[in-house]
Amino acid sequence: MGCVAAALLVAATASGCSLTIPTDPDGTLEAARGDVLRVGASPAGGLVSVAGEEVTGPLANAIEGFASSIDARVQWSVDGEEDLVDDLVGGQLDLAIGGMTDQTPWATEVSVTRGYPDFPGADGAAVVVLLPMGENALQSALESYLDEEYGS
Predict the structure, then answer these.
(1) What is the DSSP secondary structure assignment for residue 151, as one 8-state letter?
(2) How far apart are CA 22 and CA 25, in angstroms?
(3) Any residues with CB less than 8 A from the CB of 12 and at least 6 apart, and which?
(4) Which residues are CB-neighbours of 43 under 8 A, at least 6 positions away?
(5) What are the phi and psi torsion angles at 112 (to 5°)?
């Protein structure tokens, strides 16, 4: 069978199974819609501020806006980057924010959005959001929102 025929067969099979692309193997985006988006935050200069249970700042506001766009409310957890990454890997968080950039060492453990160097408070650093590996529908929806609101 030729390459084109094989590709058409795969496409036809996938469309018959109601497969959507991008997809989330763990259904993170669909689980959050109309419910709760679990977000970890690590304080970071002009991007993320934490006062008790309250998480604020431009990056936190962006995540609140994204959550609103999918009819979800944000449930914040505050911790250090390493613990946030562990919680993403373990399935306890959907997103993690802080001072992470496109040079993050966590890219082998979790998925990383595109960098946003023009983000308010980023001072030119290409700020990223971390999320569980493979949750492509969530990442696509988040990046689309950030692109529209903050440019890329």
Answers:
(1) -
(2) 10
(3) none
(4) 49, 50, 78, 98
(5) -130, 130
pLDDT per residue, tens digit, the chain (152 aa), is: 454 444 433 444 444 455 566 775 666 888 899 999 999 999 999 999 999 889 999 999 999 999 999 999 999 999 999 999 999 999 999 999 999 999 999 999 999 999 999 889 999 999 999 999 999 999 999 999 999 998 75
Between CA 59 and CA 48 the distance in angstroms is 6
Q: Are 110 and 132 in contact (CB under 8 A)?
A: yes
Q: What is the 3-state secondary structure (H, E, C) of 102-118?
A: CCCHHHHCCEECCCECC
* Three-state DSSP class for residue 71: coil
